[in-house]
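Milestone M4 deliverable, item 7.
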Amino acid sequence: LISSTNTNLGMRAGKGSAYEGGVRVPLMVRWPGVTRAGSVSTTPVIGCDVYPTVLEMAGLNQEAVDGESLVGLLKGGKLKRDDLYWHYPHYHPGGATPYSAVRHRDWKLIEFHEDGRAELYNLSKDPEEKVDVSASSPRIQRELLAKLKAWRERVGAQMPTKNPNYDPAKEMRLAPGG
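Output delivered:
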């Protein structure tokens, strides 16, 4: 029986959101002679890691590309980095608002750009992101927010800006049933 419903296995929110339900997806690799069949890694990776991985597998130059090659990880080693960053400076039809996020080991900080609030989660204890621990872990929140801001500066991340022509009243009139 094939279900027509989509699931994110209890993770919070969905596609486009900053929460695990919007960003956590499995990555499966089959590389005969290199990866062991049935092996599992819990190391978080990100989509921009795929390109440098393929380049290294093909023996090509990886200079000046985003991400980190996963070849060492696929051969049983570890990645060089402890942090993953992502930046979503626009709105998603599913309801997500502009945000940036950093994951440092088990910690994940999400900064929402509409109101500047930052949420902090310990994913090893709370993979469903039910409890924002910002208030009980202010030092970790400050450190991760500083890392996130420094990364955005380093990569020249484009920040959202207000649209001077946006009229919320007009939007309400155009909305179905409005």
